[in-house]
């Protein structure tokens, strides 16, 4: 296109953000880059930790039922009372201590907005879940990222007391490692502020932090239906905390942050523990085979308590491996941290993992 003879009367908004009214904190941030999402059915998708099996048939039935009568015409329950009752029974917690969210990312947003002032401080671990950084930046807060030690454990003594919010994923992503409850307790007491345990993957692990809620008033445990419950497309997550705290957090959330369909799906899913126990045992079995096979191919694989494994190499960069896999329609997650790079690979079905391994043998 040729240049116009005269400049336009009104200058177009500059991408730098100067003068367009955006908060400087928003202009300065890079923004969270979610994992790649493709609709190509031929792609073996092992990059964003979705469950490789379908959700419980009871979920499909519940969503169908939610489409009947005038349920779509009316607003949903603002606090998700039906879900809270069902989840409280399964998890053995107080229903008033459950806060529902449009995915657990919504829950993490609510927590950041509720606890972190402009100019505040958020503390987390690295390598860890990258979204916490974006949440802190939106809020105009600084993020302190403490390095895990060589065994993926927390620093002792805890060096970052007094933060407005401390968030740790347990099991951690991308490592799949777990911090034991005694350590969670030590840090929750030492951090001197709200402490969030992001348990997106706790359903795959042998222990979790829900039992600590009775003794740690500053603890918030977050969960998602996206991974274990095979409902990433539905968007539902929740937090468990002291009911007094949940009453305050409710003021920060959108009034109707979960819709009728997601509430129906999440409630049916959490009620069908038998179905998901079967899914878990399949994933744990494939995870074991994947770990052994990747080690045989020369990767250093961190023993995982989640539905993915983290693997690194000493002898060669892994980005070309990620790219070669992608060219062969196998998608894994390539991640770079200050401490180094690696591949995070979701535990798929047995055949999916066999295909990954066959391609890796050809590439390497
Ligand atoms: C996937 C994930 C979440 C977010 O899950 P939602 O889909 O938003 O419910 C939160 N934390 C960690 C560590 C995750 O991996």
The biggest beta sheet, please? 7 strands, mixed
The chain-level structural class is alpha/beta
Mean pLDDT across all residues, rounded?
94
Q: Which ligands, by name, code or SMILES, are bound?
A: pyridoxal-5'-phosphate
Q: What is the number of helical segments per DSSP (H or I, 4+ residues)? A: 11
Cα-to-Cα separation, first versus last residue: 47 Å
Number of domains: 2
Give the topology string: H per helix, E per strand. HEHHEHEHEEHEEEHHHEEHEEH
Query: In the CATH classification, which architecture of the largest domain applies?
Result: 3-Layer(aba) Sandwich
CATH secondary-structure class of the largest domain: Alpha Beta
| Cα gyration radius (Å) | 22 Å
Low-confidence stretches: 1-8
Fill in the CATH topology of the largest domain: Aspartate Aminotransferase, domain 2
Structure summary, number of beta strands: 12
